[in-house]
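If you are new to this repository, start here. Below is one unmodified record pulled from the training split, so you can see the exact layout before writing a loader.
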Amino acid sequence: DSRNNYTPVGVIDSFTSLIWTKRYYSYGDFELYLPASDSLLNILRPDFFITRDDDESVMVIEKIQIQTDAEDGDYFTVTGRSLESILLRRIFERQFVYESTGTLASAVSAFVTECTTNHDSTTAHPYTYRQIAGLTVDTSSSFDGTMQIQFTGDTLLSAIIAVCKQREIGFKLTLQGSTMLLSLYQGNDVSDNVIFSSEFDNLISSKYLRDITNLANSIAVFGEGEGDQRKKYYRLYFNRDVNPKAGLDLRELYVDARNISSNNGDISSNAYYEMLAQKADEVHANHDVSETFEAEIEPMITFKYKTDYNLGDVVSVQNDYGITAKPRIIEIIENWSSEGYKVIPTFDVLEVVPT
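And here is the target side for that same chain:
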């Protein structure tokens, strides 16, 4: 029960099917399909949490569908997103400027504080209404958090994704008693030991995709000002001396960042242009060459999920066409159904080498 100190309200000991998806850089989701009953209706409610004994992730119920059928019986279809999705419920309601040479965890903690603090001092509220009970950031990790960044109107989730994905750092929200602990982590490189391929009989199927649809390798960020007086920052994502881009190879993109303000000079010129550079990098993350390698693996042969590899780890994958990679696992789907148990990882491919 998410409104009562996260105390258990019931146990689901049987179901027809369950799809449980976790993601390294964002929130996951789930779908639970099971026979309907009055007792389950009392515990399967919107905003209630679903947990598993064998997994630390937490899902939030958001939708419940009841389907009645005189022949096949009545069934519930319960869906929702993982606990990380609650970070979508808060925004940077005022301009927030963050400059730091500290840790990434400290930055994330500052973001959370900003987005869960009541800044409206003109209104008398009987309680701090923006707080999220029990939400705490684990600041023990030492990942680099050097940055100069500004947010206005962004969600808390999008800000965390922006600074973590750039550094290949994952994040998760777990329940620790009555505390929701937001932690940063980085997967391990197990690619020398964990190899998925048809040669090892542990790769059932695979799907490789290379997509340049949204590619941009020259980004122009226009900041505050009017007309020709607007502050501009140009960022090239190639080496002009070693690998120059021209003609059709040059792909330009304009970014309107007028909401990034220097506050009439309160923010130094160098710091301001660093913010524009950060914005360029943030946009480029969604406009780079997209390579994904999705595979269905045999979960009971050779390597086991959570024993030999986990979400965020770097592994080796090779398909029958000589495409090999050492990708990071950015998503894991667990699927229980009448056909048995399946594990389907999705890989974020940084480099693919045809052999």
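Two things worth knowing about this chain: The first strand starts at residue 17 and ends at 23. The mean pLDDT is 90.
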